Amino acid sequence: MNAIDDIVTAALLVIGDEILSGRTKDKNIGYIAEYCTNIGVDLREVRVVPDIEREIVDAVNALRERYDYVFTTGGIGPTHDDITADSVAKAFGVGIDVDERVLAIMRERFRPEDINEARLRMARIPFGAELVENSYNKVPGFWIGNVIVMAGVPVIMQAMLDGVAPKLRTGAKILSTTIRADMREGDIGAPLAAVAKAHPGVMIGSYPYWDEQGRPNANLIVRSRDEAAMNAAAEGVRRMLEDMRAKP
Amino acid sequence: MNAIDDIVTAALLVIGDEILSGRTKDKNIGYIAEYCTNIGVDLREVRVVPDIEREIVDAVNALRERYDYVFTTGGIGPTHDDITADSVAKAFGVGIDVDERVLAIMRERFRPEDINEARLRMARIPFGAELVENSYNKVPGFWIGNVIVMAGVPVIMQAMLDGVAPKLRTGAKILSTTIRADMREGDIGAPLAAVAKAHPGVMIGSYPYWDEQGRPNANLIVRSRDEAAMNAAAEGVRRMLEDMRAKP
Questions:
Q1: Which residue segments constitute the domains of chain A, with CATH numbers given?
Q2: ipTM
Q3: Contact across the interface for B45 and A20, Cβ inside 8 Å
Q4: Residue B247: CB partners within 8 Å, gap ≥ 6?
Q5: Does A137 touch chain B (CB under 8 A)?
Q6: Using the beta-carbon criterion (under 8 Å), do B17 and A203 form an inter-chain contact?
Q7: pLDDT tens-digit profile of B125-135?
């Protein structure tokens, strides 16, 4: 159990031309965001950058300064456009070479003749990094400083996230309650702002959508690390909605 | 027709706690990425930041310095957590107030009694901004300097993007050809790197996937603004694959 003021932050760096060109639609941001929320890590920023060393190095360095953890996805495969491991080594100013621990794992998975120049790229790990286990197809990610480097293929990334999550420091979870407004956002904006102001330690968000009858509706999400404060604010929101419905 | 060295760049700033918490899965990044590629704008970076003024201001200023255009999505609705317009005004150091042009549009769409304090938030436009048309539900986005501010709800964002796209300067499109490898990435990495090296002006990416028979496969994407160069590199890739298949 963590104290409610115990906050652990993270950023996610998505690496890949294919996301920026729109050819591949990213599925990792939403997954990692939800995962972080569930384990008590606050995802505070996401960046997507192309397969260009300078861009990766600059983003890794900007983000690792600022957040407790930085996750990266993409660019650790066997082809020439997989430059994440080398870029991360450069960001940390450390060397990189084929890692004996990864080689041992690869020897269990591949025939000797298949451990070629391309696959050896996947064994390149910056000096001083820990490996991140991959229960899906074995070849690991790695962890250096506060930066956790994972694959871009969702099923492999998910296995790596499961591998690393138990080792992360986590904070108090942000709890949330969803209240369906059954009113239009534009009709409740002012009283909702008053409720938000009355509960300064609680985040209240309003998310418009069209409901199952095609009517404009809104979900009001009340979020806090403090359960009592969250419940009080949620009660305030419910009362506000009732008051509005009671109006002529 | 643009010259092939005519390059227009853009960044996308996604604003919203709900994306970072994982509650809402972003659908705008992939859509805008593909749209930009199709009209000849290079999307070079994406950032996702929370509903915090300082974060939005800093990201807008970092990105507008660096790219020809910055698109933003999210945070322009009628509730207290919609702080994008005010944050963008602050980033540009200009004032902001209810805009008469937006008010005129709202008067056509809403009954007088529905133009309340909350909905008037949606009419707040930084001084000097142009409006971005919204054919979906009328209330516009805006455009100031090189920053284009759009809604977060996908269908509304898409209408705004259609509204603004004809007014954007565009460059030569990046053309692409996809070649299905029918081999494993790890088996073609080294020869593919040689082809990439022989065609330095062309980007060659390798994207692993499991094909319809469940076998590991890879799509090789050859990209360039220069059609002849792209075709030559694609031919190089095809020949490389044939050579490999011919091997015992």
A1: 9-167 (3.40.980.10), 175-246 (3.30.70.600)
A2: 0.95
A3: yes
A4: none
A5: no
A6: yes
A7: 999 999 999 99
